[in-house]
Amino acid sequence: MNLEPSEMFKALAVETRVKIIELLKSEGPLGAKKIAERVGVTPAAVSQHLKILRQAGFVRSERNGYWIPYSIDEEALENCGEVLAEICTCGCRGSGDFREKELANSSLESLKNYQREIENELRTVRDRINELESTTTRTAGGLDFTAIGGKRQGREVPQSLRVWKTQSGDD
Predict the structure, then answer these.
(1) Hey, which residues does 151 pair with through a beta bridge?
(2) Is residue 123 part of a domain?
(3) Do the beta carbons of residue 6 and residue 42 sit within 8 Å?
(4) In 28-146, where does DSSP find H-type helix?
(5) What is the crossing angle of helices 43-56 and 32-39, to 10°?
């Protein structure tokens, strides 16, 4: 089933539907009740999301007695990936590499825009790295303390896990 890109994106515009696709991709065919439990929404809501995903062609179902397992349609997901690769602003076509020929023929303004996009992305990655490096977790006396930007948050930890540890590796 070939859908218009706008229809594909509409179907994927809801986070719950993306979670359903990720779940089915990682765990294989599941019934609506199991999907609802794992995603954390009501079975009725899952049913509506599955209906939209089926109409978009991302999910298929086949009755097996009383059980109706839902699974992803890998061909439809590949088609979606191809559409995304075609409209990708970096020109990588899904490879992750930019196309030097296209850049060679680009205007100065479009190259500067591309440079700003890459710099913003790099800034976001650096911020996330700094955030992860500044986060440490220590477990003591039954509380798990996570220091984030100088603030401490505590939560109960089972007796079997009450040891000192750090995420950053400096014990």
Answers:
(1) 148
(2) yes
(3) no
(4) 32-39, 43-56, 74-87, 100-104, 108-133
(5) 110
- 75-79 contacts: CB < 8 A, separation 24 or more? 76/1, 77/21, 77/25, 79/2
Walk along the chain (171 residues) and give the pLDDT tens digit of each residue.
566 777 888 888 899 999 999 999 899 899 999 999 999 999 999 999 999 999 888 898 888 888 888 998 888 888 877 777 777 666 565 555 655 656 677 788 878 887 888 898 899 889 888 888 887 554 445 554 554 444 444 444 444 444 444 444 444
83 within a domain of the structure (yes/no): no
What Rg value do the Cα atoms of the chain yield, rounded? 23
Beta strand 136-140 pairing with 143-148: antiparallel
Whose tokens are 């599941």? That residue is 30
Quickly tell me which residue has 């199991």 as its tokens: 34
For 1, the token pair is 């089933």
Q: Is residue 81 part of a domain?
A: no
- If asked whether residues 71 and 28 sit together in one domain, one would say yes
